[in-house]
Target: Dihydroorotate dehydrogenase (quinone)
Amino acid sequence: MYKSLIRPLLFKFDPEEVHHFTFSALKNFGFLTKLFLPKPIIDKRLEREVFGLKFKNPVGLAAGFDKDAKLFNELSDLGFGFIEIGTLTPKPQAGNDKKRLFRLKEDSAIINRMGFNNGGVDEAIERLKKNKNVLIGGNIGKNKVTPNEEAVNDYKICFEKLFPYVDYFVVNVSSPNTPNLRELQDKKPLTELLSTLQNLNLEKPKQKPILLKIAPDLTDEQLLDIIDIIKETQIAGVIATNTTLSRENLISENKTETGGLSGKPLTKRSTEVIRFLSEKSGKAFPIIGVGGIHTAQDAIEKLDAGASLVQLYTGFIYEGPELINEINREILRRG
Model:
């Protein structure tokens, strides 16, 4: 029903306006989803324990969809095993100028240059206080106006404030839409940032997993640096991958728009990064696989490459909520 009726209607309108409309509809009429959408699969065999947390199934929602923690309860009801909110920054910010979100329908892709638009960490916390037992990841970043040499302070603020309300953290230094942010992926600043957060973590009575979200555009040498950094800082794992700056083989009209590309064109590269990290590290840390998952087979390939969990974003928009069940059904079939 989604792909034959709902998606063609939604895709007639501006993607950012559709996003807000969908959020409003799910918030106010979410109970209707139980009538029109397939019932989520609940099965003990789908449960996973990763970095000390118990996931009801291995299919999560990636950051960027529910930036401000407005809909995590309703989205969880669709069948996701976990929800990642954010990217959140210490202070609210409007993000980049509109228009900043573009569908590439012929490529089953999206380009975004949102720029960490969010209402700030304090606003999100007020909503997280109403969490109905949803496993939540908190994706954190820096404000656009914060220079890189002071970025660690923004991450510290978000970490400390969010700590009581999320189950794991994701350090986002890989978005291409905040000026100079990806420079923080360099070995020295990244090691300093992650060490600072991990030291704060170790001061807590009970620690929470810290993950690093990386870009798909890193070279093999840079990925080897990532493995070294994780070993040195002892963070819990990696999310591979964020959006790409590559525009290779695109055919859609909007292919020249600036920003991060997500969707099917990223499928192969994100899986390559997962496999590289898993093999070169000797499976030393868990990986959450994200990027171009539009079918159950796409998810299985990432799990086979070394991912412990997967996340959806663009595939969820193009394929609809049934994709969650399709992936979980295939996992069960494979045993």
